[in-house]
Specification:
The protein is an all-alpha fold. It has one domain. It contains two helices and no strands. The longest helix has 45 residues.
């Protein structure tokens, strides 16, 4: 009986930590992409790689537009 209670509580704690980890990773990735992505695009433009920067900018603009329309 104690083993069953222990396993249930262990599983509950594991799920809580997993959810917390996913939320934290999502928040960190949003911050990094918000700050780092424009810097990468500016670096590509300065380096003369318009053929990479322009399609990437269009793709991410469409994604941002679709996400904000919800």
């Amino acid at each position: 009986m104690l083993t069953l209670i222990f396993l249930i509580l262990l599983l509950w704690i594991f799920i809580k930590l997993l959810v917390f980890g996913v939320k934290a990773a999502w928040g960190i990735s949003k911050i990094i992409l918000t700050i780092l992505w424009p810097v990468i695009l500016i670096g590509l433009v300065i380096a003369g790689l318009f053929y990479i920067a322009f399609p990437a900018l269009i793709i991410f603009a469409v994604i941002a537009f679709v996400i904000t329309r919800k």
